[in-house]
Predict the 3D structure of the following.
Amino acid sequence: SQQGEEDPQALSIQEGENATMNCSYKTSINNLQWYRQNSGRGLVHLILIRSNEREKHSGRLRVTLDTSKKSSSLLITASRAADTASYFCATDTQLTFGTGTRLTIIP
Amino acid sequence: ETGVTQSPTHLIKTRGQQVTLRCSSQSGHNTVSWYQQALGQGPQFIFQYYREEENGRGNFPPRFSGLQFPNYSSELNVNALELDDSALYLCASSSVGGDEQYFGPGTRLTVT
């Protein structure tokens, strides 16, 4: 079974708007990570948040973690066309991925 | 761009054949993980190697096997290929105690 499940499956927004995607997981975790994948290429690590952290920022990215609800969210502010990609959450070191959120930024 | 490289980029094999995929990890990383990503799906964990030993395995049959070499590069071998093995195969390296994984660009395998 997949540990991380992203929601929504797909999201289209205008350039400059903020994009929010969510991730739910089933079991206790040590950390949760977000990755980006451009069109069938390798995954790029975006940010890691540990189970004892509630919020983390990196540039235009903001990640929250709610261990009581077993959920996380990724916010991309001031979106750009280059942010168009699939976004995945994954837990711990033997990463278990969901099916991802396909984000499309409309210029 | 990460320092992880994979070869080949693409290959086409026939059902029943065997295939070997290769991965060179990023400098300083001694752990390599392999993932299978079917079209439209997220990557699925196949197995992980640490110091040349298998260090965890996902829900894949024994015909999926691997090796890690002293220089920490790795191979993924798949025997008796099936049509459903068509996928993007990703390797990722990480350092001891490191949670962040660095992915290679992947090998696209098509089984006909």
Remarks:
- Chain A has a mean pLDDT of 91.
- Chain A touches chain B at residues 2, 4, 30-31, 33, 35, 40-45, 48, 88, 92-100 (CB under 8 Å).
- The radius of gyration of chain A is 13 Å.
